[in-house]
Amino acid sequence: MSDTMTDTRPLTxxxxxxxxxxxxxxxxxxxxxxxxxDQVTKFIVERSLRLYDPVPVLxxxxxxxxxxxxxxxxxxxxxxxxxxxxTILPVVAAVLLFMMYRQTPxxxxxxxxxxxxxxxxxIGNLIDRVRSSRGVVDFFDVGFGTVRWPVxxxxxxxxxxxxxxxxxSLWREEQKLEKEADVxx
Length: 185
Description:
Number of strands: 4
Helix content: 55-70%
Strand content: 5-15%
Number of domains: 1
Distance between the termini: 13 Å
Strand order of the largest sheet: 1-2-3-4
Order of helices and strands: HEEHHEEH
Oligomer: single chain
């Protein structure tokens, strides 16, 4: 009897060639599409906004504020190690996510979408870190007065939505495996 957490055998039949083509098309279109949208929006922000000068869009609630973030999402910072750590981490994450993508069957589209969004977001911010020692370009600024969410970008949105979808997908799979184990007992 094998432990479901360490068993690497596929739980379902492998994808058909047609499903495999659809799967790579979905993955690449979402990943590359998110990277493109992220980089284009950052390009526009860098050329049209002044650094640290908020531009109201919906009053004080939603502003565009061009900043550089040397840390990670939500202002996480590791001091002098931030650039190195947050350059290596997305590369490792992208490799692990690609391995997860390869094991995910075509029928589990929500997980495939989640993996593509996290991968695209991680690579979008990685491009900024490699391109500039100043950090990642962030510009979406939400809040009221001095109570504000950390400034973020399109890549961050992809990572956040993708991570939430992935958590739900993995939770659902765990629930299904537990139910199947209960039935088998």
